[in-house]
């Protein structure tokens, strides 16, 4: 039996979703979208303050809501949505329901992460943790803020083990078959996450927690920063890979086509495993304490992680073109007209793909060693990740929500909901055009990120930036309308009319194109990939990190400067 | 002959290739723009 | 594993482009002295103001129109508070922090470095245009972060 046959048929896509698993998926999405709403409130306030349009009441600090925005959006919205989405697809494609033990792991992870989220949010609201979501030492938050992060990360680990368990069970019961593409990619994503979070876990458990409790007096800054960024870059691939899963697996089905190449899709995820981790120094290019040659080596490795995205770009266009031509499209770009522009399940993720073109180009600029001086810690970087995570990833996740929520509940995606989804997507794009466009431009002029309203004593440079900050505030306000509409849409999706076999929303799982060759078995040699990754990590980090350990800079006492 | 043509038309990925080349060109131009700015500062 | 002919061409072109970028920045960094800020030069953050050369922050002439600039980035300001640099001067910046992590960015230039407590960061820049340059902190450092700025006058 080939991989293609093992993957879901059209009938499988429509088959009702397991009721128990539906609760687990929805529980994750509820926290995700609540975080999005709260994070959105924080975001619009920031935009208006920086644009000089409002002033916050004295009890609330700008940097406090900035911390809330970053934590809730970048860590909580993404992680909860991703785990909910992955569990849904794993249940769908690997057995039709989660094993009892997997379901229990999913719930255990959910409870831990939710407890961590609530505890962390309380700390931020109490102004005990105004350290931003990167929590750079020696800014010292309340120890319980770090403990809250431990809850979130450990919870996500347990959820990851659940996915691995279901995958192993499937492999054991389907000897000789290639696994479903969704399962393969879910495992790859969670593998990146498990290996990446080791860095942040070490710095939080062995440096931040003992130091914030006062058990040790000092903290080594460069070691903590290096461990953080060992985690910080693969973090962004942990956001991106599930979006790519939607593109590779779901989009072909939605547009009525086939997956261009199952093998190449898997190969791109293998490359993400190998190259998304040993690259953290490209966030530390402007720092002392790291020899230039090691910065450059990690810059080279960073450029290698561009390759799977180049592959993905080709695969997406090829899927669109093949589908269009099968429908009779002619000419160079005739296939564009055959795409289902009026279907939010396609439209929102497609716009995400389109935005990834400038987002990716910006990323290559950021990582270009000395050129990073042009953009480091300026609003350009904020503009950059509002394209990557807050548009490419977010719009793809929104697009998924429009079918995932009704599907797990056996409900319909009504034409009205679909229309609201299209409107939501357009609002998002307009808001982001103004906000991220201004951020990129004014960032190149030098305006710093993470800074409250200021004109630096009316210095002409800073005065010149103000109109851009106003445009950011306008864009941010439009985006806030988009957040509210998305939250309302999510509630409406949960209350949509029941569907039957014909009308219920389907879980779109694409089939591989007939012409594509069978997937080679070696692609699932996880041991090999992890082995190569370990070698790459040791190569990229042993000497520079060893130097930090052997010749440490004097440590720092804790500081609370807010 | 005409059947051959339509088959070719069906399997071609020339639109895809043109699209990714445009994408590559966009990346190169953006990078070059910032590089020139860097050199001039 | 089968890869479409056009995909092979695309990947070859794309990867070649990446290596051209890497080549350009590699040659710039290692052959033409355009390295990012660097240095592994440690200092006790609690003793910055007693440690040479930061016990006397400011400009020190080291050659013909060539200077060392020793600067301290602290919450929430810079020492020295005002600095004048002759036009065309080559300035070797050395920056550190006695408290939390700060940024040291001079707008309109390529000077953009992290001031990390425990380390001294180094970067060289030649001021070819006259003017009053804005120096600001671009790394969040606390409640007064947005007030942390100074100027360098080049004339």
From TrEMBL, chain A:
Pfam families: COX1 (PF00115). It is found in: Membrane. Its EC number is 1.9.3.1. The chain crosses the membrane at residues 24-49, 61-87, 107-125, 145-164, 184-209, 229-251, 263-281, 293-320, 346-365, 385-405, 426-446, 466-488, 526-543. Gene3D superfamilies: Cytochrome c oxidase-like, subunit I domain (1.20.210.10). GO terms for molecular function: oxidoreductase activity. The keyword DNA damage does not apply. CDD domains: ba3-like_Oxidase_I. Keywords: Electron transport, Heme, Iron, Membrane, Metal-binding, Oxidoreductase, Respiratory chain, Transmembrane, Transmembrane helix, Transport. Residues 23-487 form the Cytochrome oxidase subunit I profile domain. InterPro entries: Ba3-like_Oxidase_I, Cyt_c_oxase-like_su1_dom, Cyt_c_oxase-like_su1_sf, Cyt_C_Oxase_1, Cyt_c_Oxase_su1_BS. It is a multi-pass membrane protein. Belongs to the heme-copper respiratory oxidase family. This is Cytochrome c oxidase subunit 1. It comes from Thermobacillus xylanilyticus. The lineage of its organism: Bacteria, Bacillati, Bacillota, Bacilli, Bacillales.
UniProtKB/TrEMBL annotation, chain B:
It comes from the Bacteria. Keywords: Membrane, Transmembrane, Transmembrane helix. The chain crosses the membrane at residues 20-39. This is Cytochrome c oxidase subunit 2A. It comes from Thermobacillus xylanilyticus. The lineage of its organism: Bacteria, Bacillati, Bacillota, Bacilli, Bacillales.
TrEMBL record, chain C:
It comes from the Bacteria. It holds the Pfam family COX2. The keyword Membrane applies. PROSITE patterns: COX2, COX2_CUA. Coiled coil: none annotated. Its main location: other. The keyword Transmembrane helix applies. Residues 60-155 form the Cytochrome oxidase subunit II copper A binding domain. The chain crosses the membrane at residues 9-32. It catalyses: 4 Fe(II)-[cytochrome c] + O2 + 8 H(+)(in) = 4 Fe(III)-[cytochrome c] + 2 H2O + 4 H(+)(out). It is found in: Cell envelope. InterPro entries: Ba3_CcO_II_C, CcO_II-like_C, Copper_CuA, Cupredoxin, NosZ/Cyto_c_oxidase_sub2. Gene3D superfamilies: Cupredoxins - blue copper proteins. Keywords: Copper, Membrane, Metal-binding, Transmembrane, Transmembrane helix. Subunits I and II form the functional core of the enzyme complex. Electrons originating in cytochrome c are transferred via heme a and Cu(A) to the binuclear center formed by heme a3 and Cu(B). This is Cytochrome aa3 subunit 2. It comes from Thermobacillus xylanilyticus. The lineage of its organism: Bacteria, Bacillati, Bacillota, Bacilli, Bacillales.
